[in-house]
Amino acid sequence: MPTYTALTTLTGKTAAEALGEAMERLQPEPTGVGVFEVEDGSGLWEVGGYFTETPDEAGLALLATMHEAKPFAVSELPETDWVAHVRRELAPVEAGRFFVFGSHDADKLPEGKIPLLIEAAMAFGTGHHGTTLGCLLALDHLLDEGFAGEKVADIGCGTAVLAMAAARVWDGTIVASDIDQVAVDVAEANLKANDMEGAVACVEAAGFDHEMLQTCAPFDLIFANILKGPLVALSPDMAANLRAGGYAILSGILNEQADEVVEVYAQNDINLVEKNQIGEWTTLLLRK
Length: 288
Known about the structure:
The chain is of the alpha/beta class and 288 residues long. Helices cover 33% and strands 31% of the residues. The chain has nine helices and 14 strands.
């Protein structure tokens, strides 16, 4: 059965949310509607809908005009077994001493590598994206330097691959948090798949706003692989929850945004140690 997407962009969060709500009332109804900020500093927002029936292009055109958005780009999607496709595309990833793989590649584990199993259906945070890979390489660098973390936080954990990597190398208190309960459930499923139940505490939280995080602070190491905006907003809390001499590994930062993030964190006494660019993304290793 063919499926369809309809995508547009416009300026401003309020306008984008209003357009998203209006799209939900279309006939035929979209199966889902998403509203996302374009993280390039342009101020643009993307609004998209997913349809299992041919969308009403005239209705979409009217909505675009009413909400001062660009004309919708409507596309028919090919019928694809996405999990099978991802399995073909996502080869195992080596990040220093770490080896990130799906169960379909379990027979490819190199001797001496630290295994991290992330299923292909849970694609964000598999290590293929430059942000996750950069964080794992930064952790690998700290290990080479002899650093050991007794208390570690993974803020915005996604699959919790970073928290699991820390738990593979250190026996300590490791907390993984995400603002989305679905991500927390995914993190717990990944821990179970890696026979690591109990090695990482997974909690739903915005930033450091959780009793467990507050009880465990200050941390020796904090991962935050999110986006520039939330990273900047988190900088005072990061400083409050990171011990003196502790490290922060930050990513989700476009290359052109890195200097601004470095400057904001320096104002909070967390200073740059190393910067690593992978494709269009930068990972920062900082020390308080």
